[in-house]
């Protein structure tokens, strides 16, 4: 069990991540349309990019207080990324007869998230 300070950092990160996800999803839906869950895909990509960059950067490039991981990786990224939404939206596409879009959504989210984590790690390792 974490200390109250640790729990507070995770909670603050979670609050910021959840609000960020809400605002970004709204923006993406208005900007990109609602026919395909592009907002969720972009959120998962960006959250994966951030966690890949952040964890490599703070363990290999700079000395960072481990509490930053609580705030950013566990709190913010944990609340910002939307794999539960992604799973539901995939099911909804399938049930609406859009099996091809459902498969594209699965492939895109998984490939985008993996690519983003690798990209984030590469970027962190290139920073001097």
Question: Would you mind describing this structure in some detail?
Answer:
It is a single chain. With 128 residues, the protein is mainly α. Helices cover 84% and strands 0% of the residues. The protein contains 5 helices and no strands. The radius of gyration is 16 Å and the shape is globular. 33% of the residues are buried.
Strand content: under 5%
Distance between the termini: 36 Å
Question: Globular, elongated, flat, extended or rod-shaped: what is the shape?
Answer: globular
Biggest sheet statistics:
none
Tell me the structural class: mainly alpha
Instruction: Encode the helix/strand succession as letters.
Output: HHHHH
Count of helical segments? 5
Low-confidence stretches: none
Determine Rg (CA atoms, Å).
Answer: 16 Å
Q: How many strands? A: 0
Proportion of helical residues: over 70%
Features:
128 residues, mainly alpha, 5 helices, globular
What's the layout of helices and strands?
Layout: H1 4-32, H2 38-61, H3 67-80, H4 83-95, H5 99-126
In short:
The chain has helices spanning 4-32, 38-61, 67-80, 83-95, 99-126. By secondary structure, it is an all-alpha fold.
